[in-house]
TrEMBL record:
Lineage start: Eukaryota, Metazoa, Chordata, Craniata, Vertebrata
Record flagged with keyword Membrane: no
Keywords on record: Amino-acid biosynthesis, Asparagine biosynthesis, ATP-binding, Glutamine amidotransferase, Ligase, Nucleotide-binding
Glutamine amidotransferase type-2 domain sequence ranges: 2-191
PROSITE patterns: GATASE_TYPE_2 (PS51278)
Catalyzed reaction equations: L-aspartate + L-glutamine + ATP + H2O = L-asparagine + L-glutamate + AMP + diphosphate + H(+)
Pfam families documented for this protein: Asn_synthase, GATase_7
Domain of life: Eukaryota
Transmembrane annotation, as ranges: none
Enzyme Commission number, as recorded: 6.3.5.4
Protein name per Swiss-Prot or TrEMBL: Asparagine synthetase [glutamine-hydrolyzing]
């Protein structure tokens, strides 16, 4: 990841305002740059770089000789940049994947550009010739983007909200900061005084629609009466392609491995493809957990089976609690299940950075939303309702799972969740059968003890830190998204300390549907309990 930041029409001294960009310095440890926009003394870009491709010419904002009026700051990866370059015979000046955005924009404008991109991205594109600013974000919001805009046309944009909160502006004592919506782009007019005016906000892609770049995929189209084997074959092709296209890096690749279905399939397929590409280093896999963690045992079994260089990280209850302040500050949310799951991911990311040279880290995020993998889907009243819920979860990925993955580093009525995905790889020999058919386990529960789940662990440890009197006034102190538990109250306290008055960044808590759940953990569900006994 990298960190992007930009201001347009600032009333304050830019040298002072630029200090807020250092709040996201952790996103780009390799280099940083601030650059003023020619002819606009109150506009500038900031960039923190993690060098993944083209270490020589990869600094931003990207500017090329052919388009001296275009300025681009982006975070992410454009997987089909080489294919597009070859198709349109663009002459590149760098080896940076994001350069394709400049060429596509010059050729066909912003809408055709963003619809052709296969990747995860957030960008700020400035066209000084036509006096336009464009903001864009990928369909699922895998790469984060926040904005703040005042009525008089001051615009601030950043990869994380914490890079905007300290900013000052003459017209308001409290700058409203909000996430830029996934699957959208915005067009803004750039005025002579450096300020902007929004022209339109466009939803360019919905998660249920086939993206424009998919016309180049090699999967078979499905028609009424299709065979299930066709679906399985398509799944295998798309899964393999999803791994392959993410190998575009000059840095070492690693993989998070919980021993669950998703991360295990990713790790096994990734190792296979790295061998085929004759990569000269072993794949490093990483697992984390407390003693007696079921994830550690399962991940060890997978690592031994596939032959990865496996790393295990042990942490205790005190380390988990001590990490909460840093985790919530990094996440910029107080959602209970997100915070729980992020502790382990935060600690293992810290281990990877300090003890290894792996920089590009694969994981299994997003599969549960797409394949209806959460255990509560067993309670779906109909396949149609399950599909609606899956679509809702995909739309909200940016608020929960991919937010967690970014900041700290994704089957109705079949008896076991993600049945089709498991069956697709039944004969592949990628994984041991007991891993391929291992039931769903929440990450926060899987890394803790079998006897003391993550949900019970955090509730027990935090209940003694919040008393009944504090809970009795929770609705007065936190009228929006009032915490219902002492654990939730504790997280909210930390969040408000770092981001006072910003509770609306989280629109609602993540909770299972179709049941009267009081806790987001799967271990509290009847289906999980009966499956565990079996």
């Amino acid at each position: 990841m990298c960190g992007i930041w930009a201001l347009f029409g600032s009333d304050d001294c830019l040298s002072v305002q630029c200090l807020s960009a250092m709040k996201i310095a952790h996103r780009g440890p390799d280099a940083f740059r601030f650059e003023n926009v020619n002819g606009y003394t109150n506009c500038c870009f900031g960039f923190h770089r993690l060098a993944v491709v083209d270490p020589l010419f990869g600094m931003q904002p990207i500017r090329v000789r052919k388009y001296p009026y275009l300025w681009l700051c982006y975070n992410g990866e454009i997987y089909n940049h080489k294919a597009l370059q070859q198709r349109f015979e663009f002459e590149y000046q760098t080896n940076v994947d994001g350069e394709i955005i400049l060429h596509l924009y010059d050729k066909g404008g912003i809408e055709k550009t963003i619809c052709m991109l296969d990747g995860v991205f957030a960008f700020i594109l400035l066209d000084t010739a036509n006096k336009k600013v464009f903001l864009g974000r990928d369909t699922y919001g895998v790469r984060p983007l926040f904005k703040a805009m005042t009525e008089d046309g001051f615009l601030a944009v950043c990869s994380e909200a914490k890079g905007l909160v300290p900013l000052k502006h003459s017209t308001t004592p409290f700058l409203k900061v909000e996430p830029f919506l996934p699957g959208h782009y915005e067009v803004l007019d750039l005025k002579p005084n450096g300020k902007v005016a929004s022209v339109e906000m466009v939803k360019y892609h919905h998660c249920t629609d086939e993206p424009l770049h998919a016309i180049y995929d090699s999967v078979e189209k499905l028609f009424p009466g299709f065979e299930i084997e066709t679906v399985k074959n398509n799944l295998r092709i798309l899964f393999d392609n999803a791994i392959k296209k993410r190998l575009m890096t000059d840095r070492r690749i690693g993989c998070l491995l919980s021993g669950g279905l998703d991360s295990s399939l990713v790790a096994a397929s990734l190792l296979k493809q790295l061998k085929e590409a004759q990569v000269q280093y072993p794949l490093q896999t990483f697992a984390i957990g407390m003693e007696d963690s079921p994830d550690l045992l399962a991940a060890r079994k997978v690592a031994n089976y596939i032959g990865s260089e496996h790393h295990e990280v042990l942490f205790n209850s005190e380390e988990g609690i001590q990490a909460l302040d840093e985790v919530i500050f990094s996440l910029e949310t107080y959602d209970i299940t997100t915070v729980r799951a992020s502790v382990g991911m935060y600690l293992i990311s810290k281990y990877i950075r300090k003890n290894t040279d792996s920089v590009v880290i694969f994981s299994g995020e997003g599969s549960d939303e797409l394949t209806q993998g959460y255990i509560y889907f067993h309670k779906a009243p109909s396949p149609e309702k399950a599909e609606e819920e899956s679509e809702r979860l995909l739309k909200e990925l940016y608020l929960f799972d991919v937010l967690r993955a970014d900041r700290t580093t994704a089957a109705h009525g079949n008896g076991i969740e993600k049945h089709l995905l498991r069956e697709t790889f039944e004969d592949s020999n990628l994984l041991p059968k007991e891993i391929l058919w291992r039931p769903k386990e929440a990450f926060s529960d899987g890394i803790t003890s079998v006897k003391n789940s993550g949900s019970r662990f955090y509730r027990t440890m935090l209940n003694i830190r919040v008393d009944d009197e504090m809970m009795s006034t929770a609705s007065q102190k936190f009228p929006f998204n009032t915490p219902k538990t002492k654990e939730g109250y504790y997280y909210r306290q930390i969040f408000e300390r770092h981001y006072p008055g910003r509770a609306d960044w989280l629109t609602h808590y993540w909770m299972p549907k179709w049941i009267n759940a009081t806790d987001p953990s799967a271990r509290t569900l009847t289906h999980y309990k009966s499956a565990a006994k079996a």
